[in-house]
Amino acid sequence: MINYDDSLFLSRGKLIKRIRSIIFLLPAWFAPHKSLRVFFHRLRGVRIGKGVEIGYYCLIGNVHPYNIHIEDYAVITANCVLLDHDNALHYTFGGDVIYGKIRIGPSAFIGIASVIMPGVKIGEKAIVAPQSFVKYDVPAFTLVAGQPAKVIKSYEKEVK
User: CDD domains from the xrefs (predicted)?
Assistant: First the structure.
């Protein structure tokens, strides 16, 4: 994770990325079909692999969407939040805003209304249970649940 303060003066390239992210945020939220939601999130700058499904009302990297990488065949269900930044310290103590990249591994599943914090990596075929708060990395082939999310079960690579 990187701690730095966002400058008020953005370069032209960063300004264009920020405007593009804002313009396509609402269509990405409300698009009636999953392929359209993926399309609009890609336009915003989120790196998305093939076969990815994104549910309604997902907030994915609203400040720096290019810090989010969702690998092939991952599923993110409705109302999930993938935060690319955390400004709690900034607002409460005047500290720095924390920015971090998020990587969702291939065939991972994020349950409804889960929150993924900056700097988290979700492993291959990992399952995040509904309404989980994930602030640490999730190993591949595990099930995590809770607030904060903890490993509930590990399973074999070949599930029959």
Answer: LbH_MAT_like
- For 33-69, the pLDDT digits (tens) are 999 999 999 999 999 999 999 999 999 988 889 999 9
Return d(Cα 101, Cα 1) in angstroms, integer. 7
Q: pTM of this prediction?
A: 0.86
DSSP 3-state of 88: helix
Give Cα separations from 15 to 12, 63, 73, 91, 130 (angstroms). Answer: 5, 12, 31, 24, 35
Q: Domain of 56? A: 6-154
Mean pLDDT, residues 27-35: 90
Return the pLDDT at 157.
Answer: 73
159 located within any domain: no
The domain total for the chain is 1
Q: Which one, of 107, 100, 53, 110, lies nearest residue 80 by Cα?
A: 110
Give Cα 52 distance to the centre of its chain: 13
What are the backbone dihedrals phi and psi of residue 6, each rounded to the nearest 5 degrees, phi first?
Answer: -70, 130
The domain spanning residue 65 has which CATH number?
2.160.10.10
